Design the sequence.
């Protein structure tokens, strides 16, 4: 059975917390699920919607994702740091690269590091620069119109950026289909 890959993007920082998050779950390089949510720090204090919850209230969801598959982002250090800001460890979870369980959010797949390894010396490895360089704008627009909230189908919106990173990961996997999950983790520079 294929291991799901959950491509994650957070908007926010350690000072204000996570303001918005987006997750694109891939199974066999196909989107199986997407989810996005705004947190109170996204809004001014007098505009917070009644059903808006703090990111810390999403622990069960992110723990279930990590138990079911591996995480990916365009810069895993940022997402890993923010996750650990809320929850230091997911508890014992599968490594997916060894028989022993681990107590970390990683290993991670990192699309920036993967592309730096695959195509050294590009001018930029910025998420949207890579999307443009590899002519993925139309695919991203189509997926964003299908999955993103209408006013959040643009760069620096969490689900939009997660969709972009998922396209870069899928393209890399199509370029080099013989690579294993362990290979992609190695090229991502991530550890358990």
Sequence:
């Amino acid at each position: 059975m294929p291991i799901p890959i959950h491509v994650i993007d957070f908007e926010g920082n350690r000072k204000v917390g996570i303001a918005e998050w987006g997750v694109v779950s891939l199974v066999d390089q196909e989107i199986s699920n997407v989810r996005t949510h705004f947190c109170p720090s996204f809004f001014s204090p007098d505009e917070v919607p009644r059903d808006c919850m703090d990111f810390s209230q999403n622990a069960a969801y992110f723990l279930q994702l990590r138990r079911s598959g591996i995480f990916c982002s365009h810069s895993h250090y940022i997402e890993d740091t923010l996750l650990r800001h809320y929850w230091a460890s997911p508890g014992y979870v599968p490594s997916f690269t060894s028989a022993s369980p681990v107590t970390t959010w990683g290993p991670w797949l990192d699309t920036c590091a993967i592309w730096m390894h695959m195509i050294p010396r590009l001018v930029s490895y910025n998420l949207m620069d890579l999307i443009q360089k590899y002519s993925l704008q139309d695919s991203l627009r189509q997926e964003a119109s299908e999955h993103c909230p209408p006013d959040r189908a643009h760069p620096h919106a969490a689900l939009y950026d997660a969709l972009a990173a998922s396209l870069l990961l899928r393209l890399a996997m199509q370029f080099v289909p013989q690579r294993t999950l362990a290979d992609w983790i190695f090229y991502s520079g991530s550890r358990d």
